[in-house]
């Protein structure tokens, strides 16, 4: 029986290529039907062509079609993946800028606070309507939502439809990845008890218990090994190991600081990631007033109290947008204090 997979938001150049790669790697999806749906016909057409070329290059059978009609994509689907962002990058820019003008600063702004509310107002009605449509078009389908705010969206789907649904995130696999666990604990993954115990809401999730097969508690080992300030703070404060922690900090405003006075521009967020001796500085710009030109940002430093967590030399990597929808990276050494 052919597995039918519909992707709502199938024009995404960030999401679709990775999804196609995974489908080609998993034997049970050999010969699957992948339906890419997007409101942008040009973008979804590009992704259709790319997906078919990837399948041909791997000599795998994957039937890929593109459409702008949501009903056609959903009808009879076994799995429905929702990955949409209403308003795109420009809307994301306003999610950051509008609260900042009133003294509320967020470095990602897609899950909680004013930015999360704005995003929910745009995205949640769309996500919920997909679940409602499936009651008629494919009531046995399973909806896998990757649209933020994930927690609000999964509640909306559950309340508006009887179709099975859940929200996921690119961070969700971390506690099950061998390379990530080995790096975290410092021992071969075969020595770690799996699965680990995790919990929380999306973008504020953590490992509640992590054991080694010799009976030792791995939590103190992680606390001793890591030089990442946020991980140490979470272990000391809550007794959990955070993952996807760059999102975590928005749930705890005390971890964020402005690096420069706010001047009414899209903020740049600085996240201290000392575990890798690296400070990543993320920048996002948005086109405003119809000008089409991106606006560069000021910096928002994300950190814990430097008196509690001394800093170490690090590298600063800055993502600067070349246009409203492109990103580049530059790196400079930085051994100054945070």
Descriptive labels:
single chain, 338 residues, alpha/beta, Rossmann fold, 3 domains, 6-stranded parallel beta sheet, 6-stranded mixed beta sheet, 10 helices, 15 strands, globular, disordered C terminus
CATH superfamily of the largest domain: NAD(P)-binding Rossmann-like Domain
Number of helices: 10
How many separate structural domains?
3
Cα-atom radius of gyration = 21 Å
Contiguous runs where pLDDT drops below 50 for at least 5 residues: 267-338
Largest sheet entry: 6 strands, parallel
How many extended strands?
15
Helix/sheet category? alpha/beta
Give a structural overview.
With 338 residues, the chain is α/β, with parallel strands linked by helices. It has three domains: 4-167, NAD(P)-binding Rossmann-like Domain (Rossmann fold, 3-Layer(aba) Sandwich); 174-243, no CATH class; 250-334, no CATH class. The protein is 33% helix and 25% strand. It has helices at 16-25, 41-57, 70-74, 88-101, 113-137, 150-160, 178-185, 219-225, 229-238, 245-248; strands at residues 4-8, 32-37, 62-67, 79-82, 142-145, 164-167, 197-201, 204-209, 241-243, 256-258, 267-273, 278-283, 298-302, 314-323, 326-334. It has a six-stranded parallel sheet, with helices on both faces. A six-stranded mixed sheet has the order 10-13-11-12-14-15, covered by helices on one side. Strand 5 (142-145), helix 6 and strand 6 (164-167) form a beta-alpha-beta unit. Helix 4 packs antiparallel against helix 5. The termini are far apart. Residues 267-338 have low confidence and may be disordered.
């Amino acid at each position: 029986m052919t597995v039918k997979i519909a992707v709502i938001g199938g024009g995404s150049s960030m999401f679709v290529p990775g999804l196609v790669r995974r489908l080609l790697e998993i034997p049970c999806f050999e010969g699957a039907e992948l339906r890419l749906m997007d409101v942008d016909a040009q973008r979804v057409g590009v992704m259709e062509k790319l997906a078919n070329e990837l399948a041909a290059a791997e000599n795998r059978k994957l039937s890929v079609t593109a459409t702008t009609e949501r009903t056609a994509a959903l009808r009879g689907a076994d799995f429905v993946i929702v990955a949409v962002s209403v308003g795109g990058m420009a809307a994301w820019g306003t999610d950051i800028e509008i609260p900042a003008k009133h003294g509320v600063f967020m470095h990602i702004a897609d899950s909680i606070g004013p930015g999360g509310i704005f995003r929910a107002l745009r995205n949640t009605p769309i996500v919920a309507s997909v679940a409602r449509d499936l009651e008629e078009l494919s009531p046995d389908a399973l909806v896998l939502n990757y649209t933020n705010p994930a927690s609000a969206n999964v509640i909306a789907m559950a309340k508006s439809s009887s179709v099975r649904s859940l929200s996921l995130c690119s961070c969700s696999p971390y506690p099950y990845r061998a390379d990530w666990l080995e790096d975290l604990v410092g021992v071969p993954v075969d020595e770690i008890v799996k699965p680990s115990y995790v919990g929380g809401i999306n973008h504020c999730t953590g490992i509640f218990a992590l054991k080694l097969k010799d009976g030792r508690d791995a939590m103190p080992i992680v606390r001793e090994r890591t030089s990442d300030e946020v991980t140490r703070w979470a272990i000391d404060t809550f007794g959990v190991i955070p993952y996807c922690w760059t999102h975590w900090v928005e749930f705890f405003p005390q971890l964020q600081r402005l690096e420069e006075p706010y001047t009414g521009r899209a903020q740049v967020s600085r996240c201290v990631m000392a575990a890798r001796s690296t400070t990543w500085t993320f920048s996002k710009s948005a086109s405003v007033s119809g000008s089409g030109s991106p606006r560069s940002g000021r910096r928002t430093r994300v950190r814990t109290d430097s008196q509690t967590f001394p800093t170490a030399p690090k590298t600063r990597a800055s993502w600067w947008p070349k246009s409203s929808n492109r990103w580049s990276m530059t790196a400079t050494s930085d051994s100054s204090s945070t």
